[in-house]
UniProtKB/TrEMBL annotation:
KW Cytoplasm (keyword) present: no
Stretch forming the signal peptide: none
Keyword Nucleotide-binding attached: no
Ranges in a coiled coil: none
Protein name: Exopolysaccharide biosynthesis protein
Annotated stretches, region: Disordered: 432-531
Limits of the Phosphodiester glycosidase domain: 243-423
Compositional bias annotation for Low complexity: 437-454, 470-490, 500-519
Keywords carried by this UniProt record: Membrane, Transmembrane, Transmembrane helix
Transmembrane segment boundaries: 40-59
Alphabetized InterPro entries for the sequence: NAGPA
Length: 531
């Protein structure tokens, strides 16, 4: 519809009012032109705002923004197939700066070495002769006595077999846990007095997991997949084969384009004094127990004999110092991104801490940084601690069942080459004591819990094993003799490993390359199963 308008114009020196009819098409065109200009202005403003947000997010040094930018970059760059989440949007110079800072931290850790002022042996087992309330709380000093006694009042049946055989197990994935708390305030999920284990629920900002508190370090060792060299096994399978009551994953493994099946371990692997794989030179750090049941981090095999050991990085706590916080937050990096994490630590009294944090589960647990792991372990008085392989490999098994939720699509996690195990009473009896000298006498370190148990619950010397692989340590410190190189058994287990995709054809003697990497360790790539 047309519209009449009036205009005043000059006509012969006079003004005159004339009327003109504006066509509807011309009106519509002007309206469209006006709207287009408005859209252009709005779009330009939106783009300017987005550009400002992008530049602020990518280049700003405001601490809060830098922290979460670095976390995002590190998390993406630690995966194998999802680096594009960082590289597609963030300039290479920014990514390189973050990863260079991470590599600097790793390089600075190479001079770290655990040192115990007292190198005597740890061994502590609750026996039937100590079946009293006082002895129980002396052994399990992490338990809050008020909440524990309240739980016993409503569940008296757990003491039917006495304190020495008390078993409370509410650690399953569908269990709600107990009303018992630790002295640090965390919920207790399980107490296994016979095996000296407490399992607690660990929660934090965006993460959840579980930690096992193991009172007797002589029961903690490394279990090896029976199919090592061809494929790995689930942590549950490794635990079963070693009569272990509890286990977590440990070493990284060759993972070419995410197809690794856990068969080729990366770095040092020693189990009960027997070496299965040599140490890698470079950034990986030795993590293992000496013959005195003390956890050592960063100590060369040339300087001591390990009873059980693996390699990984980074170190978390060395000689009581938080070696991640001191090095990361000074210059702003954020501790290797958010991932599912596995870690090990030891307190000054010998208590071993085994931590597994679930991840990649939005709404439940995204994962945590290694700085978070250090903080958790320090709350429980760790003086030595290290990160282990994580990602989709992270899992904890207790009494034959997975009690954490792996990021992998399977219930058991990925097949792995080895695991940190806590031996059951039967496992202790079946494991030869490596602390027997070539002359057949016990070493100065004592028998620990690796020998035959007496009626009192304390260990006695076990028979000399078929293969003597370690010399006697001194009473003051671990032996300085190098750990012997003993080839692993080659016969595969009758029990098949879990189904896994085939790994590349890698010679056992080949040196690692960029394509043969641990499944989660920085600065090399992580496992590919980001879900």
């Amino acid at each position: 519809m047309a519209r009449a308008i009036s205009k005043t114009v000059l006509f012969g020196g006079k003004t005159k009012q004339i009327h003109k009819i504006e066509p509807a098409a011309e009106k519509s065109a002007k309206r469209r032109s006006g709207k287009a200009k408005k859209r252009l202005i709005v779009s330009a403003c939106v783009l300017a705002v987005l550009a400002g947000i992008y530049c602020t997010a990518v280049f700003s040094n405001i601490p809060f923004i830098k922290k979460w930018r670095d976390i995002y970059i590190e998390t993406a760059m630690e995966t194998l197939n999802h680096k594009w989440l960082a590289t597609a949007f963030i300039p290479a110079s920014v990514i390189d700066a973050v990863m260079d800072e991470q590599n600097r931290i790793i390089a600075e850790q190479q001079n770290l070495k655990s040192a115990w002022g007292d190198a005597s042996e740890f061994s502590d087992v609750l026996s039937d002769s100590d079946d009293t309330t006082a002895a129980f709380f002396e052994e399990f000093k992490q338990l809050d006595q008020v909440s524990f006694n309240a739980y016993i009042d409503t569940h008296p049946e757990v003491l039917d077999n006495g304190y020495a055989h008390l078993l409370i197990n509410e650690a399953g994935l569908k269990d709600k846990g107990t009303t018992i708390k630790t002295t640090q305030g965390d919920q207790v999920l399980a107490v296994d007095a016979e095996n000296g284990i407490i399992i607690v629920k660990i929660t934090g900002d965006g993460y959840a997991g579980k930690m096992a508190i193991v009172e007797d370090p002589s029961r903690v060792g490394v279990g090896v997949a029976q199919t090592l060299g061809s494929s790995g096994q689930s942590v549950a399978q490794i635990a079963k084969a070693n009569d272990a009551i509890l286990a977590i994953n440990a070493s990284g493994f060759a993972d070419f384009q995410g197809t690794g099946n856990g068969g080729k371990v990366m770095g040092l692997l020693i189990s009960n004094g027997k070496k299965y794989s040599d140490a890698l030179s470079g950034t990986f750090m030795n993590i293992g127990f000496g013959l005195n049941n003390r956890l050592y981090i960063g100590v060369s095999t040339k300087d001591m004999t390990y009873r059980d050991a693996v390699q990984f990085l980074p170190a978390l706590v060395v000689n009581g110092d938080n070696v991640i916080e001191d090095k990361t937050f000074k210059k702003g990096t954020t501790a290797f991104g958010i991932q599912p994490r596995t870690a090990i630590g030891q307190a000054a009294d010998g208590t071993v801490l085994l931590l597994a944090i679930d991840g990649r589960k939005p709404g439940y647990s995204l994962g945590c940084t290694v700085e978070d792991c250090a903080d958790i372990l320090l709350r429980y008085n760790a003086v030595q601690a290290s990160n282990l392989d994580g990602g989709s490999s992270t899992v904890m098994v207790f009494r034959g069942k997975e009690i954490t939720d792996p990021a992998d699509s399977t219930d058991y996690g990925r097949p792995v080459p080895d695991a940190i195990i806590v031996m059951s009473a039967e496992g202790v009896l079946n494991r030869p004591d490596v602390r027997v000298s070539s002359g057949g006498s016990k070493s100065a370190a004592g028998s620990g819990s690796s020998g035959t148990k007496t009626d009192s619950g304390k260990p006695s010397p076990s028979p000399t094993p078929d293969k003597v692989t370690t010399p006697s340590p001194s009473a003051e410190a671990p032996s300085e003799s190098p750990s012997p190189s003993v080839t692993p058994d080659t016969e595969p287990s009758d029990s098949p490993p879990p189904s896994a995709s085939a790994s590349p054809d890698v010679s056992p003697d080949s040196s690692p390359s960029a394509d043969i990497v641990p499944s989660e360790a920085p600065p090399v790539t992580a496992d590919a199963n980001l879900s």
